[in-house]
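FAQ

Q: What does a record look like?
A: Structure on top, sequence underneath. For example:
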């Protein structure tokens, strides 16, 4: 039985001591899948996230001709062990210009961007498309870089820089390109992941490269990956862990097991921000987990500002506006000034019906707030399947949280799994 379309969170009233496990990192899993497919032999990925976004990547690679075996992970229900037969840079399957191979990427930004570069290594045409939201998310910088390397990309948008688009792969070629970090580091990551197999020279420009945490993740992952075959462990997802660490802002006693220590994930810094300072920036402090901090900020005893949020506007939803809108519904004192959100202490927070915008992080952030504030009801909670299908099960089993349907009935077990 799937999650209901509307659920209500019940505030925690009893002490709890919990050491929660969270699934593997989506960002690392999808990068590792690309590198494994390009490897010179078999690669076993352990602790890999098994969610909508990573299943989209696995399905796409299988359509492109790669063998991937999937095995259960006894330590975490939403992880899998993935064994990928790398083909040394060869991409077996593609279509023709008249009948391109069709791949649907949903709303998975990493799949859309990483595959865009990857399929250029094929010899034939591949059409990438997604949900409506994906068709308005930026792709231009990646398209422009690939076109500068003489790969043909036919976009169906008026401006020629959005999905759906057909990528006409012609295999590796020794050539250089530049790519900017202005809109998203995923474009640079996409090119770097396939650069070794493509014999491309990729020059990253724009912004402060040293502060591009996800780009640094890509570079460090490429450096240590077993390109000749072997085993690679994927660490837990720090942004997913932030929702459980965040509970300590109003109910101490929760920790996240096996917290990542490599430094690859900027969100591994989140425990430092449980006691929020007066300013938290998306540039240098936190990545996706800055949304967790924003939703917690009305509970702080002092004002908190969150500058440099421009990239949140072009992700799964327009997150800056969505956060301001939904927190305002709950009585938060929050203002939007340019790309900055200013949050004042809001002692009169109350319940509201929250629109999740089909955005997994909106759902998880406000579910966490609902453990502190009564009456928080979430529409479309199943959107968490994108990165954390058993999120609500974890809240119930690990934190003894009560979650109800629209009629007030308590939900449990499989009723809380997002499909």
């Amino acid at each position: 039985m799937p999650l209901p379309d509307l659920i209500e969170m019940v505030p925690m009233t009893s002490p709890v001591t919990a050491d929660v496990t969270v699934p593997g990192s989506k960002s690392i899993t999808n990068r590792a899948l690309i590198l494994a497919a390009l490897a010179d032999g078999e690669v076993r990925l352990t602790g890999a996230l098994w969610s909508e976004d990573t299943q989209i990547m696995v399905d796409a690679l299988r359509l492109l001709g790669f063998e991937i075996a999937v095995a259960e992970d006894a330590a975490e229900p939403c992880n899998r062990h993935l064994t990928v037969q790398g083909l040394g840079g060869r991409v077996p399957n593609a279509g023709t210009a008249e009948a391109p191979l069709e791949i649907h990427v949903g709303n998975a930004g990493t799949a859309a961007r990483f595959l865009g570069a990857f399929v250029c290594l094929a010899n034939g045409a591949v059409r990438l498309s997604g949900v409506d939201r994906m068709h308005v998310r930026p792709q231009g910088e990646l398209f422009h870089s690939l076109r500068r390397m003489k790969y043909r990309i036919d976009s169906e948008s008026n401006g020629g820089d959005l999905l759906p688009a057909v990528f006409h792969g012609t295999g590796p070629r020794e050539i250089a390109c530049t790519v900017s970090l202005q809109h998203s580091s995923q474009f640079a990551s996409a090119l770097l992941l396939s650069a070794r197999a493509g014999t491309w020279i990729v020059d990253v420009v724009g912004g402060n490269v040293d502060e591009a945490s996800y780009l640094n993740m890509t570079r460090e992952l490429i450096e240590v990956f077993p390109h000749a075959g072997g085993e690679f462990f994927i660490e837990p997802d720090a942004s997913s862990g932030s929702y459980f660490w965040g509970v300590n802002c109003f109910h101490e006693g929760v920790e996240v097991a096996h917290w990542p220590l490599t430094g690859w994930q900027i969100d591994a810094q989140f425990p430092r921000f449980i006691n929020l300072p007066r300013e938290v920036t998306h540039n240098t402090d936190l990545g996706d987990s800055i949304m967790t901090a924003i939703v917690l900020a009305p509970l702080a005893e002092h004002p908190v500002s969150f500058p440099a949020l421009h990239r949140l506007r072009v992700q799964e939803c327009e997150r800056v506006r969505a956060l301001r809108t939904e927190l305002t519904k709950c009585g938060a004192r929050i203002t939007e000034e340019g790309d900055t959100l200013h949050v004042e202490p809001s002692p009169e927070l109350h319940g509201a019906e929250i629109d999740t915008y089909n955005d997994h992080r909106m759902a998880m952030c406000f579910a966490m707030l609902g453990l502190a504030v009564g009456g928080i009801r979430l529409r479309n909670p199943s959107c968490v399947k994108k990165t954390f299908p058993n999120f609500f099960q974890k809240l119930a089993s690990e934190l003894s949280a009560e979650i109800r349907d629209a009629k007030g009935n308590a939900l449990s077990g499989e009723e809380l799994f997002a499909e």
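Q: Is there anything notable about this one?
A: The first strand starts at residue 6 and ends at 10.
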